[in-house]
Write a sequence for this structure.
């Protein structure tokens, strides 16, 4: 297997908000002016927030402080369904992704009840370059991150399926949420999350080093609008690769120690 790669390399924040859409570099800060804005470097990340152009970091939603990616809403008045994602510029197929997350603070008041105490990381995501301006989520598989008090589930580490389906033990599953066996962490608790992805063959979720879910054959859902458009453009039904995307769903959340190891076939 390849060595672990650090997906970040963070320094001090930078004040620039608008990122070029297709030439982003690894997510770092630079310059030391202001607090919380991001600057790209080679290979890194692209922001897309619903209702805003590709690359616009609306109201400094995504910030870097002391090597931690922070999703923040202190500059928002209303959430207004402005769901956001921070996409890797590179697409991945076979790999292990490790990170730590902490759900903290209070969600924006007008956000949907299920979005409170809720975040995650998307895998096998469509490219941010293919997203429509008002699209809320990419077609992807979500490794869901929750904290105690969430109405979205009774445990963390579930899989959600925006624009997608999956198989469990040879049977097609079209439910939007498939539960894991993990416990529910407390608010402000750092949680270690790991997802092992083998292309279209199998995906394994681990929380704090323990396997909590595995499924097979992630695929687009022909019933969903986002998937229909991708299929019409020539995308295959079965998902074997895609982008990573950290979520911003109205709830403040921190991410740190993001690392990836690519796997041989």
């Amino acid at each position: 297997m390849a060595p672990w790669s650090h997906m970040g390399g963070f320094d001090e924040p930078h004040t620039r908000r608008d990122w070029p859409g297709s030439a982003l570099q690894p997510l770092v800060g630079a310059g030391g002016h202001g607090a919380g804005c991001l600057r790209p470097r080679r290979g890194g990340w692209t922001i897309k927030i619903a209702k805003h152009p590709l690359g616009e970091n609306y109201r400094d939603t995504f910030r870097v402080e002391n090597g931690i990616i922070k999703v923040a809403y202190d500059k928002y008045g209303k959430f207004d369904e402005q769901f956001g994602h921070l996409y890797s510029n590179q697409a991945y197929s076979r790999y292990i992704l490790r990170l730590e997350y902490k759900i903290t603070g209070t969600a924006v008041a007008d956000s949907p009840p299920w979005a409170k105490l809720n975040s995650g990381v998307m895998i096998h995501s469509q490219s941010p370059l293919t997203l429509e301006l008002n699209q809320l989520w990419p077609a992807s598989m979500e490794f869901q991150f929750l904290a105690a008090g969430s109405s979205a589930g009774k445990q963390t580490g579930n899989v959600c399926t925006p624009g997608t389906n999956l198989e469990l033990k040879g049977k097609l599953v079209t439910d939007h949420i498939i539960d894991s066996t993990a416990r529910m962490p407390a608010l402000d608790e750092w949680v270690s999350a790991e997802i092992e992805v083998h292309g279209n063959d199998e995906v394994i979720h681990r929380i704090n080093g323990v396997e909590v879910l595995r499924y097979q054959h992630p695929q687009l859902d022909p019933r969903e609008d986002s998937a229909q458009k991708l299929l019409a453009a020539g995308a295959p039904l079965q998902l074997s690769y895609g982008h990573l995307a950290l979520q911003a769903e109205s709830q403040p959340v921190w991410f740190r120690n993001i690392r990836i190891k690519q796997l041989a076939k």
